[in-house]
Amino acid sequence: MKHFTSVQDIGPLEQALAKAREVKKDKFAHADAGKHLTLLLVFFNASLRTRLSTQKAAENLGMQVMVLNIKEGAWLLETQHGVVMDGDKAEHLLEAIPVMGCYADVIGVRSFAGLTSKEEDYGETVLNQFIRYSGKPVISLESATRHPLQSFADLITIEEYKTVAKPKIVLTWAPHPSALPQAVANSFAEWILTAGYSLTITHPKNYELHNAFTAGADIVYDQEEALQGAHFVYAKNWSAYQDPFYGKRLHGDPSWIINERKMALTDNARFMHCLPVRRNVVVSDKVLDSPRSLVIPQAANREIAAQVVCKSIIDSIKTKSI
Ligand code: AN0
Ligand code: CP
Q: Ligand 1 within 6 A of 58 CB?
């Protein structure tokens, strides 16, 4: 694997899931594989799970890990080309990225959607500059349009907890007080559909996602109808994708919360969320605290997903296939 930015990069999912099961059996089976290789994790946005799980996964493989938080102690970075840099940004990505590439063998990048320009966000302008100018393998730690490490962990979790071969999986929009990216929802849809599962997506009108991610899913505007018979309920807020509403929080209709009454419509479904989650806005305490909730196993599987990805990149570096 050269870069890891979407489900396309991981190869056949059956093999990736088999590797995840191997990692889970013994996290330290390849404890020296990454010796003398350095992973740099660059964060343009906040993170709890991604920073900890990816660092842990890389260290399980013997890699050295450096973390750079752009908003805490680094020079603020200009990302646009051709601008007169007389504002608050002291350094350009055009220098910063190749410099990072001098010190790191692999670079992980978190850069959320700005939600002001669909072209910039869906053109992945920051992630693509890391790929282009670092000369090193790049791992997405959530880019403008996707969060593949999260979706891989979500798929591992579904494989572990499913009780029927073809579960009914429902992705539901949920309320939130601010405008959030579409990345988690896009990626979840992409991975679940690529894995061959049927997916139902439910959201209020005007919250339609980009059909490049959702083609093949059933879109149901009535949340209660969508939840009927579900085995997994994956809740997530996202802002509008469609024009003229791109990046906007159109409303936070509280009736879309996931609570016990909604879960009672399902086939004893498991509740999933990538975290961080707003209690009693997205989901009620009772659902989140119930034994049906998988949010902690999902977070635990982030380490496993990251380790499969890091190992695959290490193998490519060592065999000089990249
Ligand atoms: C982010 C998002 O919705 O993309 C990160 C989720 C992993 N969530 C928030 O900003 C609350
Ligand atoms: N789920 C997830 O990516 O969490 P963080 O934003 O805390 O990394």
A: no
- What does each C-alpha distance from 182 to 76, 92, 241, 263, 264 come to in angstroms? 25, 27, 7, 24, 27
Encode pLDDT of 49-96 as tens digits: 999 999 999 999 999 999 999 999 899 999 999 999 999 999 999 999
The rounded Å distance from CA 245 to ligand 1 centre is 19
> Residue whose CA is closest, atom 1 of ligand 1?
180
Q: How are beta strands 218-220 and 232-236 bridged, if at all?
A: unpaired
- For residue 278, how far is its CA from the centre of ligand 2 (angstroms)? 13
What's the topology of domain 149-298?
Answer: Rossmann fold (3.40.50)
Q: Would you kindly state where each structural domain of the chain is located, as residue ranges?
A: 7-146+302-321, 149-298
- Quick: pLDDT tens for 42-60: 999 999 999 999 999 999 9
Kindly compute the dihedral angle of the four CA atoms of residues 275, 42, 319, 191, in this order, to the nearest 10 degrees.
Answer: 30
Rounded to the nearest angstrom, the distance between the alpha carbon of 89 and the centre of ligand 2 is 26
| pTM (2 d.p.) | 0.98
